[in-house]
Design brief:
By secondary structure, this protein is α+β, with helices and mostly antiparallel strands. It has two domains: 80 residues, Roll (Ubiquitin-like (UB roll)); 81 residues. Helix content is 40%, strand content 14%. The protein has a four-stranded mixed beta sheet, covered by helices on one side. Helix 2 runs parallel beside helix 4. The N and C termini lie far apart (87 Å).
């Protein structure tokens, strides 16, 4: 028994995707994951960079090993749109930058202050270490956020305003 083949017309959504095929053939009983893998292989990219939508209603075709292509409503010669989402970073990287970043940046700013205030009017400037310790402690004890946005801690605003004030005093 010969398995049925499903041929889909592929169109780019937005900027053209290099090496994107005009058509793709898959087994009718194939999964949407196989569709993503085949498109990624032919376009010379990863499946994480691709978003595939149906041409009929613009609905997302998810990348799933459990979902059959025919269950998405895609039929023979249906048009699918493929968009390159660009480079993607892992959530672990986001977490590390969001929470380890302030732990490293605050002390760095604190210890760099004497080198940014080389004015003869303030040769022995000694900033309060308690503000730097408080900012570092606040960053270390903050709870993980559930939002995608990167909140700017109040301590960073305090430090940056202090640096601007110091630089302004040294120039005037």
């Amino acid at each position: 028994m010969v398995a049925e083949k499903l041929t889909l017309s592929v169109r780019p959504r937005g900027k053209p995707v290099k090496k994107l095929p005009e058509e793709v053939s898959l087994p009718a009983k194939g999964t949407t994951s196989e569709l993503y893998v085949q498109l990624a292989r032919q376009a010379d990219t990863t499946v994480h960079r691709l978003r595939v939508t149906k041409g009929s209603d613009g609905a997302l075709i998810p990348n799933s090993k459990d979902l059959l292509i025919e269950a998405t409503g895609v039929r023979e010669q249906s048009i699918i749109y493929v968009k390159d989402l660009g480079p993607q970073i892992a959530w672990r990287t986001v977490f590390l930058v969001e929470y380890a970043g302030p732990l490293l940046i605050h002390p760095l700013l604190y210890f760099m202050l004497p080198y940014t205030t080389n004015s003869p009017a303030h040769p022995t400037y000694n900033p309060s270490p308690s503000s730097s310790y408080a900012c570092t402690l606040q960053s270390a004890s903050s709870k993980p956020s559930s939002s995608i946005a990167f909140p700017l801690p109040q301590c960073l605003l305090s430090i940056s305003s202090r640096i601007v004030h110091i630089i302004g005093c040294c120039q005037g």
